[in-house]
Amino acid sequence: MDETYMKNAYDKIIACENEIKKAIIGQESLIRQVLLSIFADGNVLLEGVPGLGKTQLVKTIAKVLSIEFSRIQFTPDLMPADVTGTNLIVKKENQNVFQFEKGPIFANLVLADEINRATPKTQSALLEAMQEKTVTVGKETYHLPQPFMVLATQNPIENEGTYPLPEAQLDRFLFKLLVDFPTLEELNQIVKLTVSKGTPDIKPQITGEEIIEIRSAIGEIPIADSVLEYASKIVMSTHRESEHAKKVTKDYIVTGASPRAAQAMIKTARVRAVMEGRFNVSFEDIKAVALPALRHRIITNFEALSNGITPDEILLQMIEEIPMI
User: Which of 3.30.530.20, 3.40.50.300, 3.90.1010.10, 3.40.50.720 would CATH assign to domain 1-77+104-195+206-220?
Assistant: First the structure.
């Protein structure tokens, strides 16, 4: 691992974070967590009520990273071909031939807005793209541009006319992030910024090629066996049949997290270490990324729902009971 290069990577990531903050008031933790996911080569699910700036955040990130941005507004009548693209009949040299017309999924950063409003058939059009970075139409498979990532949004308070994402698709998201309402001071700043004529001058800080290089370098950051085992124990503790299961797990969790959760924690913990100015992964890095990596990968029982106990509350209590050794 080249420490000089890693220090340069640290400077670039922090510059991206600071530039994004020019256009997004508050939400500092959210901005950092989205960047953790991007530099860990993952997809993000943003959950929050309308008007909190989710779309503006994604558009700002695309501009700062100087990558191609595409927005797909998910609706019940949206078809898979509207996302992936379709074969069209075109005339070439006096004969009709099929030509593939790329859909909006062919971009570096795709905003899947209100993803839970589309039917399961259309939602599934994203599965291959999110996991394999390819799109298959007919018998042909097309590679998506690199880097590629999906940032999806959903509204947690509106259930009418929505289709909850299946567990298999939720598992494809590296993080699920909750977008909180701003504080009074932040709300004042947002209003002043948005009602004024001037807009923040956002400048690109990095290129797509540099993102790919930094991802590769971060993947070489060492992680001690004890730290890796801590991440694995957290995941195992979400399974009620495991010897590592805590009482809160057995009381409220029906289905635990998949191995992808451990992978997500390791990958994002490496990025967090760099953003903290370190080139080794600590127990605190794992603990810091555990909640967004797990909250969408567990299924709670009816008792938790009836008592108003959230997945976050269950996970926080469980994680506190796992020793860092």
Answer: 3.40.50.300
